[in-house]
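Go through the following before class.
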Amino acid sequence: MNNIITFEYSEVKYTEIFDEEHSIGTKYFKKFIKTVEEKYNYCIKLGYDSIKIMNFVGVIKINDCLIEVMPKMFKTFNQEINKGLIYRNLYYMLDKANKVKYRNVVTEEFNQAHVSILDYYINIFLQELNDKIRPNLYHTYENKIENRRSIKGKIVVTKNLKKNLYNLSKNICKYDEFTENNLVNQILKFTTKKMLKVTKWIKNKKLCKEILNRMIDIEDINVTNDTFYKIKHDKNLYYLEQILSMAQKFVNNLFTTFENKNKQEIFIFNFDMNFLFQEYIANLLEENRTYILGEHMEVLRQKGKKYLVYDDGVGKLRLIPDVLIEENQNPKYIIDTKYKIIDQGISKSEITRNDFFQMFAYMNKYHVEKAILLYPEQRNSHRRKYHVDKEKQNEIFMCTVNLKVDLLTEENKVIEQLRQIFSIA
């Protein structure tokens, strides 16, 4: 297997991907080109002699070549020496963002050449799922219609007359059955089987097989994004909501084609780093609310009932900040996380007009005097204050936070950075 490690906003030459046996012009190349043009042209650009990777973090596998694309905020790292640290941090952030407990993965495993970032996402999902279904699989009541000798539930009169007019020994009955063979478990089984095909980690393969053995009586179905919207959510499903969310991300973000049952020609998996950065920061603020923000503060994420404009009394363009901080139920700060890199100092041109307009709209509608634009740090720590008006009452802060430390052992440094940001805001 040819392994290539690169970063967002980089180029990979076709000659690095396709060897002489599978050169440019073969079916692998043609299928890859078609796949990118149909599904990934927003984040992967096809040049004359290279692939230009844009806002894409994840893995691209083309026959025997695996391209691992790292987040741009780690670009200053020596990728060979620090691959383990990068993956360990991503694993930790994925845990926090998906609100699952951190697993004691042996840290040396993060340096294994054959293990990719996708394997760690799969590992988080499988371990959490295995824990959840260990006592019992999820059960729910499912509607059943069956032609049976004994009466159960209600007789479907119209259908029964058509089917059993001359067979009085049977009745078509409609009833509810408490069963494990339901849509939720069918989705989880489909996801696990897909993971078994794409993961290269022996640990994951073993977990997949254990889970599938538990689900041997669950019906096999094909799952798409639309399937997830058919789930009937209730209080009994609460403990699986996060697992289902991870399954949906996996199904949506994974594209794969198979030459035969066992060998993949192409698979592509893309992580949403905007979501990961936003959720990690929001979780840190929630978990360390008193220390970072002080007493009587509440952290609200992705909540808001304000609209930018109204049309005949009907709100249009709802304004939902990433994080809203309230003090005694009164809005105090607006925080908007931006997964962008601030490279050369901080000039007004580096923060886009849209960022400023967005924050101004938030501040105006939520009646907040202070707003914070938060970016991941790449080389140096940056903080800058902008005044919205000449009176200097309303302020927008541009700050960076360093996620290149070892988050497992040094997360306190990130917490301290956030505390300092709010102490000056």
In short: The radius of gyration is 26 Å. The longest helix spans residues 79-97. Residues 345-349 have pLDDT under 50 and may be disordered.
